[in-house]
Amino acid sequence: MEIVRLGQSGLKVSRICLGTMTFGAGADERMSFRLMDRYVELGGSFLDTADQYSAGLSEEIVGRWIKERGVRDRIVLATKVYTMMGPTSNDGGLSRIHIQRGVEDSLRRLQTDVIDLYQIHRWDFGAPPEETMEALNDMVRQGKVRYIGCSNLKAWHLCKYLHIAKANHWSRFISVQPIYSALNRGIENEVLPLCAEEGLGVIVYNPLAGGVLTGKYSREQAPPGGTRLGDVQVYQGRYFTENALDIVDRFVRAAQALEVTPAQLALAWVLAEPRVTCPIVGARTLGQLDDTLGGLVLSLSPEQRAALPAVPPGRWVGQDPVYDRTS
């Protein structure tokens, strides 16, 4: 697997990042270990988790696997902070108190003394961005975090954080983690150009649109349990629309014509965007992981990519938790 530089930082990561949102929710610990083993066998070295995934269980599973396999120095470990993790008003958000607690809690669950990439999960309207950036800078200076990044930000949110970091000579974000697929191209309007201008790495999630681009969901029946679309309500509003399913029908036929699976074509479509550093691939089974990663060998020219079924540039098919908001 190719190794690439994350933005303009010195951090090197594998071209595909393994997402761990399914760990403890769809993939039990035994299967999660097998998924990480297989990913590393294929040359992967970049794991992405978050404190909120399975209420901390995902981080715990990743931590136990890293310790049992003895691979901490071979893994770039990323996690996130924001979500409410306890009953009190300070158990969530991007305040100084929660970031400090969040780092310590993630370090404990991950069984490590440093987090390689610590990312804010989204914008917090209840915390001054100056407070957030200073707290993150403190974590870097204390050696508990090596690099910082962000996820799910509008362009103006990202600009504000970058300006604050520059004005105060604090650590700045090296990467952004936005949603991106052939069914959601919202970042193409402002976020991708901003990242290219500022030299930020782009780690995109949902390249298969929550599995919808594989063609496994039908108009005739509700998404079944045990699937991303069936278990996570927000995914239905995001992708389970008539417009999306029309595109998926044509996308599946395009994959058949190319003699690849829809999952492989969906990954190749994302990889063909030159401003994307690495997509995040998640899986519940080894079959799903192997299938999707087959897209690494499919190289699309700009003309081939443009000819594939997808929403128009800068658009998305359903409700988007970031780009639908006005503030």
Order of helices and strands: EEEHEHEHEHEHEHEHHHHEHH
- Largest sheet data: 8 strands, parallel, barrel
Q: What is the CATH architecture assignment of the domain at 3-177?
A: Alpha-Beta Barrel
Strand content: 5-15%
Q: Which tags fit this structure?
A:
two-stranded antiparallel sheet; eight-stranded parallel barrel; alpha/beta; 39% helix; TIM Barrel; 327 residues; 12 helices
Provide a concise account of the structure shown:
The protein is α/β, with parallel strands linked by helices. Helices cover 39% and strands 13% of the residues.
Written account of the structure:
This protein has 327 residues and is α/β, with parallel strands linked by helices. It has a domain of 175 residues: NADP-dependent oxidoreductase domain (TIM Barrel), CATH 3.20.20.100. The chain is 39% helix and 13% strand. The longest helix has 17 residues.
Task: Give the helices and strands, then pairings.
Layout: E1 3-5, E2 12-14, E3 17-19, H1 29-41, E4 46-48, H2 57-69, E5 76-81, H3 96-110, E6 115-120, H4 129-141, E7 145-151, H5 155-168, E8 173-177, H6 191-198, E9 201-204, H7 228-231, H8 233-239, H9 242-258, H10 262-271, E10 278-281, H11 286-293, H12 302-307
Parallel strand pairs: 3-4, 3-10, 4-5, 5-6, 6-7, 7-8, 8-9, 9-10
Antiparallel strand pairs: 1-2
Helix pairs in contact: 2-3, 3-4, 4-5
